[in-house]
Amino acid sequence: MHLTWQELSHSSQIARNGVICGRLWTICFRHRNSIELGFCTPERMLGICRGRRKFLAASLTILFVPAITWIYLFAGSFEDGKPVSLSPLESQPHSPRYTASSQRERESLEVRVREVEEENRVLRRQLSLAQGRGPAHHRANHSKTYSMEEGTGDSESLRAGIVAGNSSECGQQPVVEKCETIHVAIVCAGYNASRDVVTLVKSVLFHRRNPLHFHLIADAIAKQILATLFQTWMVPAVRIDFYDADELKSEVSWIPNKHYSGIYGLMKLVLTKTLPSNLERVIVLDTDITFATDIAELWAVFHKFKGQQVLGLVENQSDWYLGNLWKNHRPWPALGRGYNTGVILLLLDKLRKMKWEQMWRLTAERELMSMLSTSLADQDIFNAVIKQNPFLVYQLPCFWNVQLSDHTRSEQCYRDVSDLKVIHWNSPKKLRVKNKHVEFFRNLYLTFLEYDGNLLRRELFGCPSEADVNSENLQKQLSELDEDDLCYEFRRERFTVHRTHLYFLHYEYEPASDNTDVTLVAQLSMDRLQMLEAICKHWEGPISLALYLSDAEAQQFLRYAQGSEVLMSRHNVGYHIVYKEGQFYPVNLLRNVAMKHISTPYMFLSDIDFLPMYGLYEYLRKSVIQLDLANTKKALIVPAFETLRYRLSFPKSKAELLSMLDMGTLFTFRYHVWTKGHAPTNFAKWRTATTPYRVEWEADFEPYVVVRKDCPEYDRRFVGFGWNKVAHIMELDAQEYEFTVLPNAYMIHMPHAPSFDITKFRSNKQYRICLKTLKEEFQQDMSRHYGFAALKYLTAENNS
Predict the structure, then answer these.
(1) Residues whose CB falls within 8 Å of the CB of residue 148, separated by 6 or more in sequence, listed in order
(2) Tens of pLDDT along 185-217?
């Protein structure tokens, strides 16, 4: 007996349908109460089985067709009363009894049977999941509140009841209105957390289609960093509000906390009191969260809350609250595995009506009598409250908080779910957590970590946004420029707002109490990174650096700095990232950023490729007192020299430097290229000077100086190479600064490859024409601003 392909396919389909429907009916009859609830009605079951006949006909088909089909298949495997093997190893292709046609049919049959078996395995798995969900649906509608005894007696049944409020998967998903504002609250404190917030915000902005309102509970450090960042980021349809975390410390400081987040890890408990009273709902996120979907999908889940549900949480994906991780492990009370608070949906208005403040405080006080302290900060207290009041929780699907801790069981989530939505790095090790799939998640995180944040300045068309004064002023300034001007790009750069991240690394420094402290100020790009360690070895005082980097380069710098013992041992170096945008190197903007964020009364305006002499920091502090810099307008000049050797035995004294000058190992800076830049320093006099001496301003003078922190900023119209320092020194002279050369101070320029900007200056005629035009306009502005005294700059330029 032989089966044709059509007969086999038809029989397999019948068998497959029979298996599916038979298993579904078995589930329903095992749980008869599901029929009472309308879940397993005949009409619904016939719809599932895709039958279009009457209920009786479908039932008969379910009961008898599978048996008849398999008898038919079994009988087809015999020929002449002997079994026919379906295995190709046992077949006899050379026997005359077996033709080529029957051989092909047997092979086809074997393949098809295997396919059917595989499909059955998949169906059994799906049905087992459905069987697990069925009882939860029933219990949900009959149990609205739970006692403590119920929670401790059968945690799994109780948890199934909590899931009860979830809408049916067959129901229509709630939709968020196009221009509805989504509110997000984040607690952030310190330098490192501020970096984490940026990555989180990038992942949210990348997917978002709605206006966003971030509520940032931040300490003074994080507020300074993030306020500047968002102000310079200028993302449309994003609003930022700050709340002083330091003012909230008294609300939670009475709770001992062992978690690495410290006191700030408890502040999510007081959000109902902190956030505006008219704010009804908010999504609360930890800083170590990464979104892989539109946050509006999570916001829509609020519409699924029912009854007294006010908290949306994902089950904890480790055994922490089961208390079996190690001997004598004693966690806080929780419902089953408990819940993770890295992602929380809060219905603030209902929580306030329930007197949430009183609820969590009473619970925390009672549990602390025996637990003494929290181990997981706010999460312990949230779980203790939920243990008593399970009806408060709407359990979110696991993919809204895939937790990557050391003892995580999150694999059980992403093994069955292909659409992961939120990744949570909830281990102190963060990206170094032990997980066999960590490389996949790390790549997702790095995508946003190194993503160009400038690309996220996307308009939400059709959604009205609040007027941004800075954005409006920028647009007005740009509209006044002539786009046909050959120097348009130079002029435009002056008004470009560069995204700026202050204090990219930890900074901790208190200026000296004698008001003589001096900060070294410089700017650099990625190609000068190697100078940082050397400068730190030569200058022990505070340093303020502005780095012009892309998002990806900023991460390279971070890894470089964290791998350097020299840099990590210094907490008095402020690294301020100015992100790349446009085609020019904004050298004077970078200098202004570095100047603006110093904490000392004086600053040494240097460049990154200069090494100061050993001991210059202490020498300058003494000179500040000696020359009464606090009460006079002076600019103290540090003479500049250079070497053409990459390996230099750095002179330890002025006498040694003079000897190297005479031997030709060192030279006065740019003597063979740009003599006018430093000639007024009068190096001949400096050789024998023992006391400070005054020099006069001359055309193109650009020395490196020490000034008070209130000196004028650099002019931003000068970008790239040319006239950036010259213009600044000219303005100091116009403001009647006195230039004084220090007799025992010096700095040495180290050799390096020419910068990209100087190459453009030398090779591009239009570049040089535009620079000359900008210089003339600057001189005219000086004349208008300083009047008759500024005429000498025009005269000096004509005579030079």
Answers:
(1) 387, 388
(2) 999 999 988 999 999 999 999 999 999 999 999
